[in-house]
């Protein structure tokens, strides 16, 4: 089971087709609408959090492509404020990828952005709230 936030862009020709409905019906995917800017007969945009089996998710994305919908993952850009970090280690204990890790013996918490998956678990785990997430896509 996977869950991804995706930006979907619809053209003037596809804005009113039941494409998202079919994603649910044919590929057994669930979605939450995070944002929607839909304009009659104009290019439109939806930001969805889509979850389901990985193979079905891939098939669903191929379906979008075949219907002229441009899609792109919405990526969380994680930043850690080094000046305000107290190196308590709370974020490293929840980080599933090891992007946040405790460097021993200094006991500094380091952040390797290359390992970050953007799951945002660390944002809520940080007591002084010095980790922030901003969302961006390339489309
Ligand atoms: S967003 Fe997730 S993977 Fe990235 S540093 Fe935070 S907990 Fe680790
Ligand atoms: S939880 Fe926050 S304060 Fe603690 S080590 Fe991580 S970033 Fe620093």
SSE inventory with pairings:
Layout (H helix, E strand, L loop, with lengths): L1 E9 L8 H9 L2 E8 L6 E9 L1 H13 L3 E4 L1 E6 L9 H5 L5 E4 L4 E4 L9 H5 L5 E6 L3
Antiparallel strand pairs: 1-3, 1-4, 2-3, 5-8, 6-7
Helix pairs in contact: 1-2
The structure holds iron/sulfur cluster (2 copies).
What does this structure look like?
This protein has 139 residues and is an alpha+beta fold. Helix content is 23%, strand content 36%. It folds into two domains: 2-73, ACT domain (Alpha-Beta Plaits), CATH 3.30.70.260; 78-133, Alpha-Beta Plaits. A hairpin with a 4-residue loop joins strand 6 and strand 7 (108-111). Helix 1 packs antiparallel against helix 2 (54-66). The protein is elongated and about 60 Å long. The mean pLDDT is 89.
